[in-house]
Structures
1.
Amino acid sequence: MNKQRVAMILMIILLMVLALMACEAPTPPPSGILFTYPTLAPSPMPGYDQDPAYAVAQATLAAGQNAIMDLSHQATVVSMNMEQAANAAAQSTVDYNQRQLLELSIQGTEISQNIARAAATQQFIAEQTQMVLNATGTAQSQVTTATYSAYILNVTQTAQAQAVLDVQATHAAQANATFTAYSLTATPWAAIQSEIVRTRNEANRRALWGEFVVTPLKVILATLVVVLLIVGGVMAYRRLMPVLELSLRTFISHDNDSPLLVDGTFVDAALPNRQLPSDQGVQIEIIDSSEPSITNWITEAEEKLRFYGEIQP
Amino acid sequence: MNVNRYLPAARYIAQAIPDILAQRGLIPFISRYVLTETQQGNAWLFIVMEVDPLNHLEEYATSDILDYISTSLNGLPVVISNSYGMRYAVLLGSQNLSW
């Protein structure tokens, strides 16, 4: 009874598996996944009476197990493939990044090389320019020297030729002409020499001017100033000393004891008949009007006073 | 006649006249002062100036100077006397003055 029930359950399960298999069989396998249809290989089961359905079921079971195993294997493979793909993708990303990094490093290196190359080029160009300038200056100097040497040689040859051909008098004229032409040339040496000659001439002119004009003029001016000071002092003394002397005399004689001169005798108003020195204060002479000179003075004064009408005749 | 009564006035004038001349820019070349009185009672003070060829005495004899001196001496009459020298004559007092 139990066997039959177990058998029935197994049968149902097999039928369900077969139905599932039948449902899955028409779907094509995904691309890229290895798939093989299972082959039904009936395996004998000892101890039981094998009927064809069981065998079929067994075969189907075996086939299903195989298929499940295959599917599991395929899933495992797919999973592995997926993992590998993921790893591959990550690896490719890492590789890509590393490649990018390498490329950037290469580019940086190239740029650094370019910079170094440019700096080296600039240095080279600068050195070349300096060399060219030095060479140009040297060449100019050499040209100048050569010109000057040629000129000197020419002058020397000319002088020698003239020395051979001319007499001593002609020598002097030639030397003079050579010196004149030499000083008028545009060479630096000629310019320096002409500048020296000009400076010497100017210094000589200044020396002559200072010797014959400035120095005597200074002496004359100093003498004139001294003379003017002396004359001014004398004139000031003559104009101012009387005033000063009179002021001093007036200051001394402010007291009321001024001496008086009465008829040729110095007297004091406070103390009559007192003899005083003649140099003290204002001296007033009292002279009688009968003195001839005084009479004349009085007559003249009264006439003028009558003329102006200020005194009665 | 007592001329001594004119001495204070004469002393005053003698002390003031140099400053008066100096105020007008004139140098007081004064040599002496002479006080006298006539019989008619006129008292004169003569201010005798030094005569020097270098001095321009005509500047001392202008009417402006005489008026200035007279005004400075409170209106006393002042005249110039320039015969045989040069003098200022100041009339200190008179019995017959018109003013």
Note: The radius of gyration of chain B is 13 Å.
2.
Amino acid sequence: MKSAHTLFPAKNSRRKLLAALVIVCGLLLLFPARSEAYAGPGAGFAVLSSFWTLFVAFLYSAYAFLTWPVRYLFHWFKRRKAHGKAQIKRAVILGFDGMDPELTERFIAEGMLPNLARLRDQGTFRKLRTTYPAISPVAWSTFMTGVNPGKHNIYDFLARDLANYLPYLSSAEIKGPKRSLKIGKYVIPLGKPQIKGMRHGTPFWHLLGKAGIFCSVIRVPVTFPPEKFPGVLLSGMCVPDLKGSQGTFCFCTTQAAGDKFREGGVRVPIERDGPVCRSYIPGPEDPLGDGKAADLRVNFEMRLDLRKNQARITADSETFTLKVGEYSPWIPVKFKAGMGFSARGICRFYLKGISPEVEVYVTPVNIDPGRPDLPISYPVTYSIYLAKLFGPYATLGLAEDTWALNEEVLDDDAFLVQCYANHNDRERMLFDALEKTKQGLCTCVFDTTDRVQHMFWRYLEEDHPAARNIPRDQRPPVIQDLYRRMDELVGRVMKQIDDDTLLLVVSDHGFKSFARCLNLNAWLHQNGYLALKPGKTESGDWFDDVDWSRTRAYTMGLNGLYLNLKGREREGIVEPGAEAEALKEELRGKLDGLVDPSSGRVGISGVFDCDAVYAGPYVDNAPDLIVGYNDGFRASWDSVMGKVTSQIFEDNLKAWSGDHCIDPRLVPGVLFSNRKITEEKLAIVDVAPTILKLFGLGLPTHLDGKPWTVATKTAA
Amino acid sequence: MVSHISMNQASEAAAGFFRPGLPLVVVVLVSIIIGLVMVVVFRYTSDQKAIHVAKDQLKAHLLAVRLFQDQLPVVLSSYGRIVLGTGRYLKLAFLPLLYAIVPLTLLMAQIDRYLGSTPLQPGESFLVTMRAADSGTVNQAALQLPAQMATTAPPVHIPAENEVVWRVVAAQDGDYDVGVAAAGQTFSKRTIVSTGLPRLSPIRLRGRFWERIFVSGESALPPGSPIQSIAVGYPDRSISFAWIQWNWIWLFFVLSLVAGFFFKSVLGIEI
């Protein structure tokens, strides 16, 4: 984007002019008079704001400097119990979401990952047992709280509303303000939106913070809404976009309306008038509407230049030029409602094509980190600080737009460019946190590992249905490159740490192929556990056409299977107690070892009773059974959305070709440490107690994890 | 009665905030126009992106001092970065300043001719000061006044400064030439007695090109003249605004900043 315009583009003439101006100014300074003491608002602003900045900075620094001994003593006092027992000064935890131990071992053996190999040799490399189910929000919640899901209440991305069998986001609830004022057609919100975190349990950095140990926490999943604690935190997975969804991209096109996107995006028409095209970005609901009003919009205009294969786009107050196949930087957009209300966000444009059809992809509108409408960090100024330091960055929880690639709105390259742009931002944040946190905890989770493996597993496998038509020699080594990048990152972090720092590389789960879809609702229907309304052979999304009065079991989300329990579900028919237990046993017996008739392979390798795997105050919110799909299988796209189809098994033809929402025993995560760890069998639930112990803190009794025995010094 | 008095006081106080007069109107207009022109010039002569980044970096380091205040090394390094960042920001603002300073300075020098001083009033005494090149000329110098003017005191000689000072009074409005005779020649100085807003030249100079540009509004005295300068002591002008008496430069400074701030926000210009 060209944003700096200059009046004198020619360098030489500009230099001469500059020299002349310097001479003239010098002469003016030699003969000062009151009339030239001031040179306009520009200089006035520059000088005033510079002095103001320095003045404020000086005050801050003086305050920090003068009060530091008092605060140091205060923190020492808080830390005194832990101080003597601490084995480390600093812990650095790199979370590589979905890094797979088997792939890692394979790539290390091939010599691709020298830094991880060094880490393994000088310290520890183990498989890390994940949670039931092996889903990121569940596993990272366990990572931070040191408890099983029965105590932190996160079982999946989605939970079900018992009153209507509809899903809702399991991690956070966002509602409008408590009070509003209705004036005519307007409903004026009085107050801020209500955001309620649904995850329970205490993250270990809260305990460290209370003990006076500073923590920098960056993009750990399920940290939205950000909770108050003595440290800094930037929320990760589960932060919504400006629409309140988990990511809704916009595809603007001159093509006649095609199929509606299954999920994750909206198609918007482009009006073309010669070289000028006009379209819009749909935004959030009108906050002044009564819920029935149309979404707010930001209009944009494009001027096509077919000869140069580019377009000049004007959106809000920003104008920029994009070539076909190019992304814009983050563009601020403001959705204006009436009466001075507005919502601010940022998005990136990707010019997909201008001939014969004009196609523009717009990322989901992220909350602007520099002017957040919802809190996405603690303190709020931390997201602003990062935005000022590095420029705008993706704030959406699932920032890499996998849906756009799945729906073929983006191609592989465009998706990867987006992924690594976000990844690079995250790296900058990590290294800044490392610099700022010389003592204490610094943890940062990278999602790229998860998203790229989800979308490019098809190239890793010999005969994946989603890549059957692509010859083996034309498949890019995307996952190999990903692991190499992560290894380089580990190498750079290792250079930044000293012997008193514990370095852990942690993944929440591993990865396996997702070649075959299994619609469990279809199986339940065909086996008499789920009934459709008379005359129906299939249902729509979210159990449309399901006859609940004759349904005993259903599934929604990725791994949970629910009984339609009387007294719990609105139209439950299964009696709690013996009947429910018998039904669970029956389902386990039939589903465990379920065979895919087309290949003879087992589709489900384990079905787990939640009463046996969970314990805690929130067990009642858990599914009744967790379905563990075998390697190569996963819940079908339809099944996840509560849809009953006629097919139980089918090929997965989507780019989303790898997954981990399967039998947790098949997808452990990884643990690398720069110190030797004695125990052989490690679990993600142990990370929190281990860190607390290493910092010399006592362990709360409710923790489920057990601290590891970690060597006191890094091996030479 | 009491309420009548307080009403009067209130209306007087309100009138004191903005007492319209030609000089104030001129300053306000000039401030608004220059505020607009200068931010536009700034926009096109500056690297807007670099300024935006530099300002953001400064804000980030300020926030770092607040966010990491318990970590003294971070606070100190952030402060160092703030100082460096301020230098970088001023450097970026310097180039547009160079573009603006020449025309603006010349313009302000000209406006100062109108607004810097008030013209003389009939009956008001003022000083005419002649500075000679040598002490001999000081002793010979004589003032030649038009009929509407008269001296009110004998001349004062200041040999150490090579100066002679006359106290003069004008009887009525007019545009006069006050003459100073020395070494057989007579040199004139324009002197204005008026109630309007005329262009005033407080001094007539020999040579000194740059000083003439900025403080004089008259042609130079001849190069070989025995007189270096003839000055007329116009009173400084003060403008009443917001219950304060302002020198026009300060008022212009404040008002053009306000105008600049307004226009920069409206036009989305980074300063």
Note: The CA atoms of residues 39 and 260 of chain B lie 6 Å apart.
3.
Amino acid sequence: VSREAWGDLEEIMLAYFVRLGEEAVLLRQLVSRLATEADAKDELRRFLHRVAGTAGTYEVSSVFEAAKNLERTLHGGASDKELAGGGSALATLMEETSRQKLLPA
Amino acid sequence: MTASGPVRVLCVDDDVSIRVLVKAVLERTIQANVEVAESAEAALELLAEGSPPDVLILDIMMPGIDGYELCKQLRLDVRYHRVPIVFLSANNDSVLSRARDAGGDDFIPKPFAAAELGKRLMEAIARRREATS
């Protein structure tokens, strides 16, 4: 397949990194609801599952691993405080990754 | 390509990043004609408007009707008895057996290798045609 044929995949990648930054904001909001809303934990589980799958597919291994680790922490019965800390760290990683990839070369 | 033209694919995934990547990859690797839907409900509406695709790609964990349930619903409709259904999911535990129980043909784990996707779909189409011919 020629390089030209794959050209717009780069645009798709950039769009993904924009969305990764937006998802970090959603993750922070979700984490802030953990202590007060009963369904927030289940929402976080689905969110982490989706973020991990997509990051892995786009070969962003740092976000993939961090999301999988937090997913395992959640399944292991972690406290809201632990999840909030892990979620906040993951959101920071997502924001930093997004910023780095979107910096002009 | 099939004997009657480009392979027609419907990809159902709630994540837009996956939908656009699957569409772009399949258009390039197997020159497929790819439609996308953001939910099972949207897929059912789309399918009601036209003829069945050559193959369906379903995410499993989606809000509302999940991929397993969508697959079961489609298999109840005679028009979808011969259409291969391939699951795409980040959840690797026991997915294949549940996918088969729901009437699915194959399971591709996320993350998936872009180059493998078209190959696996074509294999699913070939297997289903062989089994029903």
Note: The mean pLDDT of chain A is 91.
4.
Amino acid sequence: MSMCAEHVSSKAVLVVDDDADIRSTVREILEDEGYCVTDAANGVEALRQLRERGAPNLILLDLSMPVMSGSEFRFEQRKDPSLASIPVVVISAVGSLDLKVAPLEAAAFLRKPVQLDELLGVVERYCR
Amino acid sequence: MAFKNRRPFDIFSQLDQAVITRYCVASALAAAVLLLTSLLSNALDGARYSPALIAVMVSSLYGGFGPGLVTTLITGVGIPTLFPGEPLPAEPDRPGHFYQLTLFETAALLVSVVGSLARTARKKREEGSLHTMEDRFRTLVGSVRDFGIFMLDESGRIITWNPGAERILGYEASEAIGRHFSSLRPAEDIARGLPERALAVAAREGRYEEEGLRIRKDGSSYWAHIVITPLRDDEGRLYGFSKIIRDMSGQRKAEEERSRLVSKLKEALRARDEFLSIASHEFKTPLTTLQLQVQSLQRAGRESAATEEALKEKESPHSAIPRITSKLAMIERQVGRMTELINNLLDVTGIMAGRFRLKIEEVDLAAVTRDIVARLRGPLKDAGCDLVLSADAPVVGRWSRLRVEGIVTNLLLNAIKYGSGKPIEVTVSATPTGARLVVCDHGIGIADGDQARIFERYERAVSEQYSGIGVGLWVVRQTVEAFGGSVRVKSAIGAGATFTVDLPLEVSGNCSLPPPLSSDTNRAA
């Protein structure tokens, strides 16, 4: 699926979202901008990829996902010293997002539906 | 009186006392007459028995024949004793003593008889009316069928029973009278000593009232409302209790049915809000893809257009790219509208469910307003509205950025929708107590009677010609009030509307929006 076998590029991004269309759309957009993008459909898959391929520059994380939610993923990620420092940008449709997002200590928050400029801006900021 | 608290068996002793009193009065009257006659003997002369005769009349009227006779005897003996030696027989014009005495006693006997007859007649009249009152009271209690009314003796044994009690409990009077009232209660209540406790409370506090399950004769249960009142005599001694029972089963069933329907209704409302919340949330997933794809295409279109511009359109003078770009812009605007609608729906369900907590941070109201105005350039252009923005100086306060954006967006969209394509003025300024946002349009305006209503949920001043679900201004009001601020509108039909939001710079306490249960009628904006 991914053009990046490993997260070795300086512009590596991991997209975690259970919606396949969102994953492929974000991946296409970012790949067009020259980023190396991998994706995962839930928190478990994301953790496995991180441990197999190393740390990307940025994780774009959805919150509501089956198997392992974004919040659970974030909890596991912060427990693992090798992964804890990767910045995470939460992308969610959660309405009362302030309440759920604050404890995640995310680098940034994007509210669905995401504006293209906002997405590119935030990815660029963390993948310099 | 018949209803006076009186120990029933004291009546004889009271009668005894009355008899003694009557005879005492008769004797006293006689003594008074003797005293009077001796004092006025000269003046009375031949009429010395006149006061005695009056006394006999009073005695017999008051006490009956016996007391009249006593007065007659005392005065008949006393007066000749006080005035002895009168000539006998009488002179023709001056009756003699013996003659007067005989005349007096004959007259006194007649007066006593007449007086006692008058007394008896009076008594009968009084007793008749007394009996009438008692009969009426008995008829009253006996005709009451909705209430069981009966009396208990001091120990709780039933001593009277009315048809209401018979109807409610199923026992006839012959079965009930003599039973202990505790037999009307479930066995476990008896085991716990509740009947005795009820009597004790009634005796101590003057009243015992409760509602509870009771058993009928046929073993069926019913919901009873019970009042027990102690009965005391004039000296305050307890001699029994009155007990009034009402069968509340029907009312209780209706109340239970009402509670069931209310909780069902609340559950249905909760389910509706939950559904709206989930649906709104789910809508955003396809919108995300749609928006990103449209914006990617627009971006690609802009890049292609720039390339073509560079080629000076030599090769493709009728390029489709500008048309495609304009169609994409329209799609993007519709995605934006859909997003606003969904956000407002989410806000409504969040507010109603009490999930609308706010993260407070430093926010520049002027900067937020500038951003929103820039974001709404498309809708402004479509509506043909020019926008005059006066928000140059920063107005920084501690609010929730997202909610402040919501306030500005909703007020601006409202002005665009109802602004009739005329200019809109937006001003952000600092006031002595906080920040002020004013959004002024020159459109259709709002009638006086509708100005309060537009801030309610699902309410709109005009509905048919204008799209929308009527939650925007309600969300504005809820948010502004959560920040401790206020929103008001000044408007007239055809003269546009000016919305003024005042916010304090600092929100006190844990800022959250409680569900507005007071507007349960769900008429809101």
Note: Helices of chain A lie at 20-32, 43-53, 70-79, 97-101, 116-126.
